[in-house]
Structure formats: structure tokens, C-alpha cells
Model the fold of this input.
Amino acid sequence: MPELPEVEVVRRGLERWVAHRTVADAEVLHPRAVRRHPAGALDFTDRLRGHRVGVPRRRGKYLWLPLEETGQAVLAHLGMSGQLLVQPHEAPAETHLRVRVGFDDDLGTELRFVDQRTFGGLSLHDTGADGLPEVIAHIARDPLDPLFDDEAFHRALRRKRTTVKRALLDQSLISGVGNIYADEALWRSRLHYDRPTAALTRPRALELLGHVRDVMNAALDVGGTSFDSLYVNVNGESGYFDRSLDAYGREGLPCRRCGSPIRRAAFMGRSSHFCSVCQRKPRL
Done:
């Protein structure tokens, strides 16, 4: 599933190619793509027509397109394989095209939502005074948000009584961090994924937070992480951060720091990648 850097790359593309354009028409080609919009596909498309798209926004892994002067926004969740593409009108329809949105200008492009596995989707929601869709108001700020509170994050870690990777994946504590960037930040911090959060001192917690930011910014610089053709930006291009990963996906390869083999362990229905020498397992 795309994490913060991948979603931010898409948001930036939408800001360039979609912001401040007025919707002329919209078409839902698969009902599952708007299943989170309870009123259905016809209501979804009717509510879009004639409205001007504002500057796309993001919190963590969630991306939304504000509809100016309506108090509503189109919330996009990319799921495992969702793609928001800006394509010429005449471009052939993608095999898994689910929604298309046309605009009332002469730029010659339209917005397409493509989703092979149909786990993602689009939905229309009311927004609060801060412009945040009410349905995701419980999601914490992400570490690249200027208003993210580092000290509050440390205090929450100490109270949570959990382990450090579980905390990084907890979207009510910190949003946008998924399996890939959690493993990378923990490797840079020399922390084992199972270390109790209550044992993290303030300097260690803030150091970890710094590594989370560093690895995400590094990924942003090269367009995010693409392991297959399912994650692309709005122009269909892949990211290249997978070439710079230090832990995730490197099972059996030498640690770039000490040379010991990177190990993989089952974790919460997925995997954790770590160096057993640099990232010592905590004692019970």
C-alpha cells in the first residue's frame, strides 16, 4: 500500500494538473470504486459536476480534492493498487479504469482512477472548519506536517505501552508511516522493531522521529518507492527509492553498516526486515 511519500508525489502531480479546474462531467465505470459513497454512483457524479477543484491536500496516506465553496471534498484512498492518472482524452482506456472525470477547459486532459484490485476508492465527504474531511478527523498529523508536535508524540509513546514498530504504524499516533518506512527508520535508528515504547528515552524517540522524516524526504526526492507497476505518479511514472532501501526487502543481503545478513520476521500479518547485530532484540 502506498505510504506518505508515494501519496505526496501523487498530490503534487494533482496540484499541478487538476487544481483550479471545473468538473464538466464524471463517469463511474465500476460501483466498487465509490462504495464508500453511500448515496451511490449517480449521486457521486451529480455532486461533482460544475464544481471547481481546489488545491489537493493530504494527511498521512489520505488524499483529498476540495470542491471550492461547497464544504465538501473528494477523498481518495489508493488501497493496494489505486492510481490517479492525468491522461489525454483520446488515450485508450486502461484495463482497470474505474472512474473518469472531465473538465470544462481546453487542456485536453482528464482525471482517471484506475484500480486493479478494487481495494481503493473515491467518496464525497463534508469537511470541517480546517478543510479536513470529517471521516478522517481521527487520523493523526504526519511527521512532515509543520504542526506535528514532537514532544506530544514522545509522551504518547511512553503512555502507549506497546512496541516501537506497532506505534509507528498506529495512525492515531502518527500517520503516513507504513511497513517500508518503519523498517527503514528503525534500521537507521538501530532499534529492534519489538522494543517497548515505554523504554524509549526522549532523545531516542526524537532521534527516531528524525530518521522517519529523513527517509521519507529521501523517498520524495526520487518519486517514492515502486516495487511493481501498481504504484505510479499521475503521469504513470514509477519511483526509484527501492534502489536505496537499507532494510526492507533485503532479506539475506549484507547489512550496509556491519555486513551481517538482513533478517525477515513475521509481524502483524506482514514482515519486518532488520539487522540482528545492529538492531538487537530487547531482553524480556
Residues 150-275 form a domain with the Helicase, Ruva Protein; domain 3 fold (CATH 1.10.8.50). The helical segments are 4-17, 41-48, 150-160, 164-168, 179-189, 202-221. Strands lie at 23-28, 57-59, 62-67, 72-77, 82-88, 97-103, 109-115, 121-126, 262-267, 270-275.
